[in-house]
User: Fold this.
Amino acid sequence: MTEKNTPLWEVFIRSRTGMAHRHCGSVHAADEEMALQAARDVYTRRGEGVSIWVVPSSAIVASDPTEKDVMFEPTASKIYRHPTFYEIPEEVGNM
Amino acid sequence: MTTTDRTADLFAYTLRLADDAAILGQRLGEWCGHAPTLEEDIGLANVALDHIGQARALYTYAGEVEGEGRDEDQLCFLRHERQFNNCLLVEQPNGDFAQTIVRQLFFSAFMLPLWRELKASKDATLAAIAAKAEKEAAYHVRHSAEWTIRLGDGTTESHERAQAAVDHLWPYTGELFELDGVVERLVAAGIAVDPASLRDEWHATLREVLDEATLRLPPDGWFQTGGRSGRHSESFGHLLSQMQYMQRAWPGLRW
Assistant:
């Protein structure tokens, strides 16, 4: 089967305990329904998930790796953005 | 009816369900490493493992009912060809991908309502096995139905292959609805499901799927029979020789 007939889909799974869907891989499939089935068959065989999203890979807009410095370098010096300088009261729990 | 008769019937009925599941699981397992795509390779293996899991529970229970100390391995791997009572449909060779998918659709569209009804069985163990198997069968119907629609309503070649599979396998579906003394007595006792009561739903499921797939449902004609009484297709012996090799070569072998 060709790439044209079975395009690539990105698979996101929400685990039993997780709050958000996480990217876990990709599958080839002809359409949405088959992509969901393929994702279920390939990525949830060991009880990994309770919900699946599939998204056409072509719909994902990605940052350009060559612009890595421009995009991400400026944050390196801003350590005050990390909440490590604050005491978090125990009652707050997980942040 | 004596307890012994009831026990013999329950053993026979449970064994048939087990044989159906084991043989279809074995056939599907033959695709492992050979399916058209990686995704489907895993998908078919998943279905195979569902069936093998059902078979294990059923064989184990059949052995308990029989009470002669036979376990799942002995029932699955040490019986001869004529002692297997699976329907002929499940033992049919995989053929091309369309044939495998249509075989699954025909069988699972029958098993889904059967498991659903069997949940109300007066036999608590069969009811419990049915509750688990029902969810698996529901996915098998969905998986095979979606593929059937895409093959039938796909390219000229996929349509032709899917129609050929439907026509080829249709004569093996009559056996699903056969009623013999074993089933009749267990239906009367509230233990088994009357297959005739599933026919309309089965037919409606197939009609809906095949319509969408632009495939033709063959008219009821002459149907193959024999599996329930141990008369199998020529390829069945080859299937058993592969499936039973380990236990025959090393009797009592365990993981």
